[in-house]
């Protein structure tokens, strides 16, 4: 198979990571642009530098992942620090969560620790810590024989303890799961076989005497480019290129014309594709910085010419005697990514624009900035400053050996290629071997797409995190809020337990050769009926949200989190309805990309908290709310900083009369009493004096004692045990007690661990034996849960782990 087609097939029809490489001029950039047009996956393009990102039509790695510029240490503590310092906004998190395909261009310049930081970020924010890059397919594009990653001496002293080299292929992520390696071999830029041979030998660090002599013939230290020839000087440093251009421009007579760029929106200066202020004269040598969009194409990125005419809004460039090109302003876009709330599609958004004539003074340019450009004639002035890869980059910009002049000799040490790059290239598989794996990779991908429709674990975790966050600010919400969220979480856990078992069925079907498509459709049809009913119930529960808070910020957090859960469930319902008749990869993307979010509205915000129906003194409650708001609004304080809803309820119900009693109110500590206590106490005292009401704090204490005694008498775990011994199964106990199946499982697992219940009450002996085999076969660094999670339900795993803990206690 043609390498181009094979790369496209892997990118479009599998989720395997892929390294697309090839010599300069082999069409890697063309592949990227075609992939952006053809892929139906949720896709983002990133690159290590601003200019590379703009050229690739994407954004920078650091911007997309919100990463610091400091080295990343690939340890648990390093990953923890990275996440703790991340300032990932919810919109950015959503992009990461929806992402399916990540393209990294100019991968040769990406350092190993930066790639591992990307891996750690995706795992964390996609909540898939056990999957490489959080389950995102990654395509690396670049040539390792070109510009290398930069690691300062002090940075490498730190990183060398963890990495064999700074190259991306020595990152822990790539070592864990090496990508398919496909090299594009057909060269489009050069056609002369002798020159191609010289470039290949430089690239492979195998320059022959014959090729060295060919290069020496191009050495001419006294060469001065003729005025009529379109030579460009390639240097190693910016200041030298700028000086040459300024000096040559000054030599020209005539008026200097200044053209300022139009810059709008968010467009960082470091990403400018050309000068924000362009100075030109008639006769100035210039280089085009864009490919022409017209047909036939008049110019390309790197084409050189001379300014023939200028006026205020018109520049004419002459490239040949009879070729005159009228240049118009071009626009470069700074791209960002968001998720459309209606379709859940990752979309490119234009954050800013840079409009300027696509020209640069072209007497000289740095080798670094020449990467990706093509020249007919070049003077290479690199002196002794060649770094690994620079010789190859400089020479490979040119179409022919005859168009090259060397102002300094190329010494053998200048063309040495890092042996680690050469060794890495030797590891690539033959194309035929990759072709043989492609069919299996397609099947695995199809299975994973189907499994994703029946995977509720992520939504359940999302709900659990929301429950935890709301619990931390419970004083800001009414009491029904946590009850409502616990109900949603319980439903999600129950659905996920069944979904885990169904995913095991799917794997069993796909392990058969050939796959029984009729049976697969039968199972998908049955799954649709079951899960659709459960999702409908969940969506109905979400729509009936009783949550109320008078904090705008907390209401916004709650509304967004509930909306996210609804969006995920609505998408699953949509996919279930359509995939029961067609379970192909093509059908999956057709349906997923055709999804439109149904209408949904929940608003937890109420300008002032509504008093509970059972509150004894609603009038006092309203007075306390007004006082709380009077304190908060001028200072722009969140309401929970002063007094949340629960705090106000208790003050209005138990009528504290002094600071000592106020300390017994939930949410009031010594600092709050000192700051705000007298303001609330004066209102409560006035209210009580008018109505001759005493403090009721003693009733609050008695209520707490009674609640504690009741809890001690009615031990929840023991009740579950009694019901189990009475012959009820876990699902029946959960229904009777109005608790989640997982909660009952946790109760009974405690008694398996203590030895009071037999594990075979919940896991058959055959299943227990299978679990033992799985645990014996796991790797030393693999957790017991991970070894079991794909073949056992959550309840079974809970009981098996409890059984193992019991055995460990028995041994000790």
Helix content range of the residues, please? Answer: 40-55%
Identify the strand order in the major beta sheet.
3-2-4-5-1-6
- Give me the CATH superfamily of the largest domain: P-loop containing nucleotide triphosphate hydrolases
User: Number of folding domains?
Assistant: 5
What's the CATH C level of the largest domain? Answer: Alpha Beta
Radius of gyration: 34 Å
Strand-residue proportion:
5-15%
Low-confidence stretches: 709-714
What is the tally of helical segments? 33
| Assembly level | single chain
How far apart, in Å, are the first and last alpha carbons?
Answer: 61 Å
CATH topology of the largest domain: Rossmann fold
Principal-axes shape call: globular
The biggest sheet amounts to: 6 strands, parallel
Mean pLDDT: 85
* The CATH architecture of the largest domain: 3-Layer(aba) Sandwich
Structural class: alpha/beta
**Total number of strands:** 20
Q: Can you describe what's shown?
A:
Helix content is 50%, strand content 12%. The chain is of the alpha/beta class and 812 residues long. Helix 1 runs parallel beside helix 16. The longest helix has 31 residues. The chain starts with a helix and ends with a helix. About 1% of the residues have low confidence. Its EC number is 3.6.4.12. One of its GO terms (molecular function) is hydrolase activity. This is ATP-dependent DNA helicase pif1. It is an enzyme of class 3 (hydrolase).
Key features?
single chain, 812 residues, alpha/beta, Rossmann fold, 5 domains, six-stranded parallel beta sheet, five-stranded antiparallel beta sheet, 33 helices, 20 strands, 50% helix, 12% strand
């Amino acid at each position: 198979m043609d390498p181009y087609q094979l790369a496209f097939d892997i990118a479009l029809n599998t989720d395997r990571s892929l390294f697309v490489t090839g010599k300069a001029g082999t069409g890697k950039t063309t592949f990227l642009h075609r992939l952006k047009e053809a892929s139906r996956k949720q896709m983002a393009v990133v690159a290590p530098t601003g200019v590379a990102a703009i050229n690739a039509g994407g954004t920078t790695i650091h911007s997309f992942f919100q990463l610091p510029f400091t080295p990343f240490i690939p340890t648990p503590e390093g990953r923890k620090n990275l996440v703790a310092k991340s300032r990932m906004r919810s919109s950015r998190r959503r992009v990461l969560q929806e992402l399916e395909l990540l393209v990294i261009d100019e991968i040769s310049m990406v350092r190993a620790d930066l790639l591992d930081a990307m891996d750690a970020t995706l795992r964390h924010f996609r909540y898939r810590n056990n999957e490489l890059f959080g389950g995102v397919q990654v395509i690396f594009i670049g040539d390792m024989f070109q510009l290398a990653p930069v690691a300062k001496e002090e940075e490498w002293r730190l990183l060398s303890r963890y990495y064999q080299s700074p190259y991306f292929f020595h990152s822990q992520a790539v070592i864990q799961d090496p990508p398919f390696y496909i090299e594009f071999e057909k060269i489009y830029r050069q056609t002369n076989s002798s020159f191609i041979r010289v470039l290949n030998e430089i690239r492979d660090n195998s320059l022959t005497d014959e090729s060295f002599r060919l290069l020496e013939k191009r050495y001419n230290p006294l060469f001065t480019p003729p005025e009529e020839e379109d030579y460009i000087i390639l240097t190693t440093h910016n200041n030298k290129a700028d000086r040459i251009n300024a000096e040559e421009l000054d030599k020209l007579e005539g008026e200097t014309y200044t053209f300022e760029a139009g810059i709008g929106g968010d467009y960082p200066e470091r990403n400018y594709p050309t000068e924000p202020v362009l100075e030109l004269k008639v006769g100035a040598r210039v280089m085009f910085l864009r490919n022409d969009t017209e047909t036939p194409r008049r110019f390309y990125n790197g084409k050189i010419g001379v300014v023939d005419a200028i006026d205020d809004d018109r520049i004419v460039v002459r490239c040949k005697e009879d070729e005159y090109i009228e240049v118009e302003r071009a626009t470069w876009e700074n791209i960002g990514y968001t998720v459309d709330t209606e379709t859940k599609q990752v979309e490119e958004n234009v954050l800013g624009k840079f409009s300027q004539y696509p020209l640069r003074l072209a007497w000289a340019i740095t080798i670094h900035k020449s990467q990706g450009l093509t020249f007919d004639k070049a003077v290479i002035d690199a002196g002794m400053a060649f770094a690994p890869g620079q010789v190859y980059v400089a020479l490979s910009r040119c179409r022919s050996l005859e168009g090259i002049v060397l102002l300094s000799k190329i010494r053998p040490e200048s063309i040495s290629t890092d042996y680690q790059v050469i060794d890495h290239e030797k590891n690539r598989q033959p194309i035929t071997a990759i072709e043989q794996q492609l069919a299996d990779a397609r099947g695995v991908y199809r299975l994973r797409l189907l499994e994703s429709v029946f995977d509720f674990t992520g939504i359940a975790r999302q709900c659990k995190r929301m429950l935890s966050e709301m619990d931390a600010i419970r004083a800001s919400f009414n009491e029904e809020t946590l009850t409502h969220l616990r109900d949603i979480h319980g439903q999600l856990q129950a659905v996920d337990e069944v979904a885990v078992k169904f995913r095991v069925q799917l794997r069993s079907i796909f392990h058969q050769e050939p796959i029984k498509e009729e049976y697969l459709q039968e199972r998908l049809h049955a799954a649709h009926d079951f899960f659709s009913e459960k999702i409908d119930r969940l969506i109905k529960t979400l729509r009936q949200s009783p949550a109320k808070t008078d904090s705008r910020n907390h209401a916004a957090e709650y509304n967004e989190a509930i909306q996210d859960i609804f969006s995920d469930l609505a998408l699953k319902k949509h996919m279930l309805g359509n995939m029961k008749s067609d379970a192909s990869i093509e059908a999956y993307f057709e349906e997923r990309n055709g999804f439109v979010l149904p209408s949904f509205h929940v608003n937890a915000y109420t300008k002032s908290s509504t008093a509970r129906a059972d509150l004894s003194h609603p009038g006092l409650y309203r007075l306390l709310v007004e006082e709380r708001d009077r304190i908060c609004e001028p200072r722009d304080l969140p309401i929970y900083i002063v007094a949340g809803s629960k705090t106000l309820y208790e003050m209005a119900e138990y009528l504290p009369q002094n600071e000592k009693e106020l300390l017994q109110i939930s949410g009031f500590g010594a600092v709050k009493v000192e700051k705000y206590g007298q303001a609330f106490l004066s209102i409560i005292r006035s209210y009580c004096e008018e109505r001759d009401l005493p403090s009721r704090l003693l009733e609050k204490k008695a209520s707490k004692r009674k609640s504690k005694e009741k809890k001690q008498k009615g031990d929840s775990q023991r009740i579950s045990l009694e019901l189990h011994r009475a012959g009820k199964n876990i699902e029946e106990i959960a229904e009777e007690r109005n608790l989640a199946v997982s909660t009952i499982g946790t109760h009974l697992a405690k008694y398996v661990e203590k030895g009071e219940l037999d594990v075979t009450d919940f896991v058959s002996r055959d299943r227990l034996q299978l679990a033992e085999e799985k645990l014996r076969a796991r790797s030393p660094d693999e957790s017991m849960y991970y070894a079991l999670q794909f073949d056992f339900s959550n309840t079974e795993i809970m009981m098996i782990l409890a059984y193992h803990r019991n055995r460990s206690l028995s041994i000790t």
